[in-house]
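Teaching assistant's notes for section 4

Start the section by putting this record on the projector. Ask students to predict, before seeing the second block, whether aspartate transaminase will look compact or extended. Collect guesses on the board.
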Amino acid sequence: MSFLSNSLSRVKPSPTMAITGLAQELQAAGRDIIGLSAGEPDFDTPDHIARAGIAAIEAGKTRYTAVDGTSELKQAICAKFARDNDLTYHPDQITISSGGKQVLFNALKATLNAGDEVVIPAPYWVSYPDMVEMCGGTPVIVPCPIETRFKLTPAQLRNAITPKTKWLIFNSPSNPTGAGYTRAELQALTDVLLDFPHVWVMSDDMYEHLAFDGFEFCTPAQVEPQLFERTLTVNGMSKAYCMTGWRIGYAGGPKVLIDAMRKVQSQTTSNPCSISQAASVAGLNGPHDFIARHNEAFVRRRNLVVARLNAIDGIACPTPEGAFYVYPDISGLMGKTSAGGKFMATDEDFATALLEETGVAVVFGAAFGLSPNFRISYATSDDALAEACTRIETFCAGLT
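Reveal the predicted structure now:
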């Protein structure tokens, strides 16, 4: 009898964390490493948010809170959903966890039984399939290639749904591609979902405010109100508010689901950090002008990376609508050999050789379910990105 659980044997460690860890090890050993693997903005937490966290400590707000969040933060989240998304939630329809990942996991743990299927468009965030596996469900991966700009089509969605389907996990703008669905594209998907009342929608809106070039974000329950009672609308403070380490994610959904998620959290972590919750209230209720300033930098960086990568023979890089990632296709580089003697059979070979030979850390596409590609996070300085692109150009020029 194995000591470790069978469900754990189906789960892979996070590839993004693994690449980031390897890059840090090489850097500690004295290598000149440019890390483009972590999905984390390089801006500090805005001052008014940080000060609210400090004030919470000074006021002694360091004790347990309600299991799934304070009433103050739930009220701020309800106001955010009404203000930004035209969605009306009551505090008892809100859950708050230690990051968006825990929100997603709680929902899956609370709802999945053996044999239940979860439709996941690929490329996907690396944790989606493994969380489904850990919770006893079956991921149904739907490849969405570069020809559809990495977006799920209505026909693909319809074909993926079976009587066993319980959830569709939806993410826009996307990690890893940055692709954003227009209102018309999302309406076409929700029209399909209306034909399948047993399918719920888990909408991961973490990159909502990181939208560029006039792209207008919208979320499924906003586009199709008939889906409101079977949609979990997930968001958090990590990306737009530069609060990755504060670990606050939240969601709005039907009370029956939120109650079940609270039960899961009550027996796992209990409440999210009290100090982080106080800071999040200030973030949601306070000024948001910093987001536009940050987005100006992200657009500049995106344009730099897209232009430089598309100038390389064998690489095709679409311009994303949001987030802070690009997901270039490297089909034209497969089958070649690097200057260091590494044969490019897979995109993992490419990413490994790139790191070892040039010191540029990216994440290989297989980690996100669609190959051959790689992901760059451009949430770092312009100078670092320019130097990384130069090294990638040199690396690709040396392929034979």
